[in-house]
Design goal:
Blueprint lengths: L3 E8 L9 E7 L4 E8 L4 H16 L5 H11 L6 E9 L4 E7 L3 E5 L9 E3 L2 E2 L13 E4 L5 E5 L17 H12 L6 E8 L5
Parallel strand pairs: 5-8
Antiparallel strand pairs: 1-11, 2-3, 3-4, 4-5, 5-9, 6-7, 6-10, 10-11
Length: 200
């Protein structure tokens, strides 16, 4: 069974040919790594920074999350830098580890609302990967089949969180959020990942 069912929707700032917002979903030794990356600014230099970050994550996919972000910070020192949110899914143990640097919003919507909070929001730490890295502390959450992870860059208005549900198809959700909540004055990306391969 696939570990996730996902959808992604993105748009570049009007007048730009490239978006500085990128995403990553890759299997690793424990499960899967999921990230949303926003290059600082927009245009080619922002896209280059985001691409460099995505490439570093792919090449070091099995590293713990904090080590990944610290290594990414060193790799990006010669670029504009990025903000990002990243999650590592461990389906065998039903756990997710996540952290965010900057303003890429992260929300976990639970499929079973009888077991604690229906919505978990990622604590974001101010900083820029490649320029000014804050002290890093990852959070660990229990997860179960049907839980849905949402990442959105700052080209998406923050009130999109109020519209979230676990019942919507991930691609339709990503398309809808971009259409309804895209600001139109920045690159924008929405990544929606429903967890399908978690042991119950």
């Amino acid at each position: 069974m696939p570990l996730v069912e996902y959808g992604v929707a993105s748009s570049a700032l009007p007048g730009q040919t490239e978006s500085g917002d990128q995403h990553l979903l890759r299997c690793n030794q424990c499960g899967i790594l999921i990230a949303a990356i926003d290059g600082i600014g927009h245009g080619e230099e922002a896209a280059d920074a985001a691409s460099a970050a995505a490439l570093f994550l792919k090449r070091n996919i099995n590293e713990p999350i904090i080590s990944l972000v610290e290594g990414c910070h060193e790799r990006l020192r010669c670029t504009r830098g990025v903000v990002l949110s990243v999650a590592s899914i461990d389906p065998a143990h039903g756990m997710m580890t996540w952290l965010g640097v900057g303003n890429v919003q992260g929300v976990l919507m639970r499929s079973d609302t009888t077991k604690g909070n229906a919505k978990e929001v990622l604590l974001l730490r101010a900083g820029v990967v490649g320029a000014q890295l804050p002290p890093l502390q990852a959070a660990v959450l229990p997860i179960t089949q049907g839980d849905t992870l949402f990442f959105a860059t700052d080209g998406i208005r923050s009130n999109f969180v109020e519209s979230l549900t676990t019942r919507e198809n991930p691609q339709r959700a990503a398309d809808r959020i971009l259409k309804e909540f895209g600001s139109g004055n920045d690159d924008a990306l929405v990544l929606v990942s429903r967890l399908t391969g978690i042991r119950l």
